[in-house]
Every structure is written in structure tokens, then in C-alpha cells.
Amino acid sequence: MKKPSAGNRDTLQTIIDFLPTGITMFNAEQQVVVCNQNFRTLLDFPDSLFVDGMPFLRDLALFNARRGEYGEGDPQTLADQVCERARGMQPHVFERQRPSGVILEIRGEPLPGGGWVSIYTDITDRKRNEEDLRRVKDMMSAAINFSPTFIWETDAAGNYTRLQGIEHILGYAESELLGHQRCSTLCDADHIAGCEVEMRMEAREAIERQVVETRTKTGGIVWLSTSAQPIYDPRGAYLGYRGVDVDITEITRARQALEQLALHDPLTGLANRRKFQDRYQLECRRQGRAGLPLSMVVVDLDRFKQVNDTWGHIVGDVCLKAVADLLVSQLRTTDLVARFGGEEFLVLLPDTNSREGVLVAEKLRRALEISVIDIGLTAQPTLKITASFGVMTLLPTEKLSLEAAIERADHAVYAAKRGGRNQVCAAGSAVPETHAADGPS
């Protein structure tokens, strides 16, 4: 390598002194030709090494070896190894952490005719930032993987482009869903909420804690709380959605259990007074708009006190549950059965006139009359129970509170009781609509 002239060397020195990195140029004899102050600062070389002119590589290497820059070993041997490697100089990039904790990126490039240039960059902050970023990513991944949450992104067509954490919630590997429509995994005809999410995504609206019922890969039901935002590029072009789904299955089931307790009789599972009243008011409003009648049946078990007194309340509970199941099995899905008292049940029959209400009540009476209830006692393995039925019908033009409607049906029940029990009587009738051959047993 031709040695630069004094003028050229001064110009070169001026240029490299303004650079933020450390720079050295070595000649073929491994002597520093030129270097900047940043090199001396980054490597923490003292001025004494430069008193007699530019040092050789071995001077620098021996100084480093003696202060432990190259680890344990004989300093002379370590310095010789550095010089030997430099003789076969190839383009290279590597990182070295100094004992002080400073991390340097060192790049070397051989020069034509011998010698090389080395550039030293302090990357301590960058490495620390990278480590902090890696640690944050690891923490986020751990939080996602160990929590009931998965994150996702879609492209503008609604296809998954990124997924994390979905496998431990829905059972799908991320690779199974990437590139597929989000709608296909969360929305079908049975899951209206899921479809609503997709409709809001099509409208590019923000989604906040929308509850979605979906299924796992194995068919289990899962409830998710979906929150998401549309994403755009810097020019405002729509890119897709970014969102998070939280598994709220346990919370949802707990809430459903509470609702079940709040709106249903704990023994029979039938609707309680509160649920029946809400439904009655709803049907009254609907029948007023549609101009259709609404019927109600009161079912009062005959001589049920004797059952409790003779066989005990446990047997009585078995009988009540059996009667509840029988009533539900004989009715439409649009009808509602509720337990109102100890042995009294109410049946709400939407879109049912008086004649039809009596027919339904008679159907229930006959089904109960022929039923045999297994009570499991050795002395009395089965029981037969009958009931008295009172039917009232609310015309579309009538406005009647639930209490008044029950009172009207109760009058019909009392008439059935007076007529011998195990009978159906319609409100306003002087005699029961049907008669049993014998009184209840």
C-alpha cells in the first residue's frame, strides 16, 4: 500500500475525525497509518501508545491482552494470535463486548496492495434496546400463551395474516388458519354474534368487547370477547384488522348459571315467577299488535299435602320434578311452564284461544292421569298423581295484569276442585269442561 503524502494524510484525518465511528487504517506492515479520536476513545487507548508515532497492531494487541480484553491467557501469545489472524485478513463483521460492558461492532476490509481498514461502532445502546425489545416480546408472548387470549391480524379481504395464542383456546395450530377467512372460523348460521363482528369489520368499524359464541376444533363451545380496530397505511389505505380475543367461557357459564338461578325454580328447572311475569308482559304486548288471543292454565296438584305427609318431602320433590318434566314434554317450544307455589304450576299458551286452551289443558290432564311416578321406595315404588286445571283466555282487546289473570284462572281451578278434582275448568264456566270417573286417589 502506498503511503499517503502529508497533505493527503491531513485531509484524510480531517474527514475521519468528523465521523461518529472509530476508524483505523493499517498498512501491510500492520502499522496504523491513520486513525481518528473516536477509535482511541472507544477502545480506551492511552495517549502514551501514540507518543512515538502511530503504533503497530502488536502494540495495540499486547496492550489489550494485558488488560484482559481477549480473556485469560499469556498476553504475548494472545497478541501474536491477533497479528497472525490479521495477516490472512478477509472481509469480516463481528461483535465484541469489552470488560467495561461496551459492545463494539467491528468491520474490517482488506485494501489493495496490503493493509486494511477497520471501523468500530458502539452498538451498546442498540443491543440493549434489542434486548429490551426481545424481553418485552417474550413477556408478551408468555402473557398471551399463558392467558386466555389470542391476538390476530387480517388483510383487507378478511384473511388471517398473523395469529398468536389461538391453539390453547380453539385448538387450531396457527398454520392451519393463516391465509383463511376469520369468518369461517368464528361465524356460521348458529352464531349470530360472530356474524355481527364480521359485518362490523366489513363496515370498518371499531369493535369493543363483542361477545362471540364459537366452537373449538373438537366441537366444544367457547365464548370469546372480541375487540378490534381497522388498520391503515400512512396514506390512509385500508390494510385489514388487528384484534384480540379473550376466552370468557368460564365467566359466561357462571353468568348463565346465575341467570338460571335468578329466573328458574331450583328444584324443577322451570321458569320462576319473575321470568313468567316478564314473558307474560311480552306476550301481552305482542298479542295486542297481532290481534291474537293468549291463554293461561293454572295446574294445581290434587291432595299433594297427603304425599308429603305420608312419604316425606323428598318423595314430594321427586313428584314435583316428574310433573314438571311431563308438562314440558307435552307442550310447544313457544309455550312456557313455571312453578308458582308448592304444588302449583302455570302454563302460558301464546296465540291460543279459549277452546284451544281447554284442549291443551285436557291433554295435560290425561297425560298426568296415566303417568306413573317412580319414587324408589320399597314399600311404595310408584305413585300416581292427578291435578285440577283452570284455563283463562285474554282477548287481544283486554288489558289484564298477571295477578288479575292468575286470579281469574284460580277461580276456574277452584271450580274444578269443587267438581271432584282431576278436571279442567275454563274461567267463566259454571261446570267443569271434563269430568273424571272417580276422584283422585
Any chance you could write out the topology, listing elements then pairs?
Elements: H1 6-17, E1 22-26, E2 32-35, H2 37-42, H3 57-66, H4 75-87, E3 92-97, E4 103-110, E5 116-122, H5 124-145, E6 149-154, E7 160-164, H6 167-170, H7 174-177, H8 182-186, H9 192-202, E8 207-215, E9 221-232, E10 238-247, H10 249-263, H11 273-290, E11 294-301, H12 304-311, H13 313-329, E12 336-339, E13 344-350, H14 354-370, E14 373-374, E15 382-383, E16 387-394, H15 402-418, E17 424-426
Parallel strand pairs: 16-17
Antiparallel strand pairs: 1-2, 1-5, 3-4, 4-5, 6-7, 6-10, 8-9, 9-10, 11-13, 11-16, 12-13, 14-15
Helix pairs in contact: 3-4, 12-13
- Poorly predicted regions are 433-441
**β-strand amount:** 15-25%
Structural class: alpha+beta
Across the major sheet, the strand order is: 2-1-5-4-3
Largest sheet: 5 strands, antiparallel
Q: Can you give me a brief rundown of this structure?
A:
With 441 residues, the protein is an alpha+beta fold. It has helices at residues 6-17, 37-42, 57-66, 75-87, 124-145, 167-170, 174-177, 182-186, 192-202, 249-263, 273-290, 304-311, 313-329, 354-370, 402-418, and strands spanning 22-26, 32-35, 92-97, 103-110, 116-122, 149-154, 160-164, 207-215, 221-232, 238-247, 294-301, 336-339, 344-350, 373-374, 382-383, 387-394, 424-426.
